[in-house]
Structure formats: C-alpha cells, structure tokens
Amino acid sequence: MSSSSVSDGLLQFATQYSFYSGCITFSFGVIAVQYSTFFFYPVLFGFLPIIIASSFSILAYHNVRRIVRRQLPVVRRKLDKQITAMVLMRVIAFVCLVLPYNAYRIYAVNFPTSQSMPMAYAISRLLQAIFSSINLINYVINFYIFIIFSSRFRRQVKFVLVKKCRQRWKYWCCCINNRIEPSNIEPRNSQIESEENI
C-alpha cells in the first residue's frame, strides 16, 4: 500500500462535509463508525478506564486488609479504611455514571436518526442530553462521596469553610479599624494660624 493511496483515503475521508444551515459538520464514514463502535467508546472511553479504576481499588482494598493484620496504630488503620471506602464508592459511582453514556453513544453512532423525522430526532437529542448530563455528574460527585463516607474529610471541610473562609470574609467585608481617633479633627494649619492670631 503506497503512501499516496493512504493519504488519498484520509483526504477523501476528511473531506466528506455536509452543509446544513450554513454550518460545516463532519459526516462519519464507515471507518469512523467502526472505529467509534469497536474501539473508542467500548475500549478507550468505556472498559479501559473502568478496568483500571476497578483494579486499583481492589489492590487498595487488599492492601488495607494486609495493613490490618500488621501492627500499626489504630488511627492509621482507621484512616486507611476510610480512604479505601472512599475509593471503592468512587469506582462504583464511576461505573454507574459512565456505562449508560457509552452504551447510548455506541447505539447512536450505529443507528443515527435523521432530521427528517422530527419526533425521533427530538427523542434522540433528549436522550443524548440526559446521558451526557449523567456522564458529567461523574466529575462533580467526588466531593459529595467524600463528604458522605469520610468523617475526617467532613472535619477538614468544616475547618476550611468555617475557620479559614469565614475569617477572610469577615476581614474583607467587615473591615474594622482598631485605631482610636478623635471625633473632631482639625487640620494642622488651622491650629498654627489660631496660635499666631493670639
């Protein structure tokens, strides 16, 4: 296979545009559909991150079980258990929030809906918006999972919000001068003039 035939194929694939309402949109070819169906969404965006996250959470779980058997301080063991619980819950949330979007994207790429059927197109766009929102929750949920499952994290958040941020807010908004000043201040020049007049 010569490099010119590869570049011609890529050029032909890349130049398939459809003009609709003044916007240039990229239309998928057969190769792109196969790539996204069999590699991108199932492997790169789906199972590979899930497998990596799950394997590391299982390794952390086994590590904590080994630490419990060793002679370590009770506080350290308790903190390790909390961190492991947080990691396990994070992985479970990750799997539950990523899989629906991946499944829908594989379906949508293989069976696209035409804009000539407005009801089916509107339903597919609604489903895409719902599953995209569920997928985006994946990036926001860490804070809430950690608040629920870790008392140490709750204490740290309370310390930061109440002690640090509240003190800064008080300083910025309620700036209080701690200086004592007289209530009637006259300029120095007027005092000098009054002394000269006497």
From TrEMBL:
UniProt cross-references to PROSITE patterns, sorted A to Z: G_PROTEIN_RECEP_F1_2
Top-rank lineage group of the source organism: Eukaryota
Start and end residues of each G-protein coupled receptors family 1 profile domain: 1-139
Residues spanning the membrane: 12-33, 39-62, 83-106, 126-149
Entry keyword Hydrolase: no
InterPro entries attached to this UniProt entry: GPCR_Rhodpsn_7TM
Compartments, record wording: Membrane
A cellular-component GO term for this protein: membrane
Name of the protein in its database record: G-protein coupled receptors family 1 profile domain-containing protein
Organism: Adineta steineri
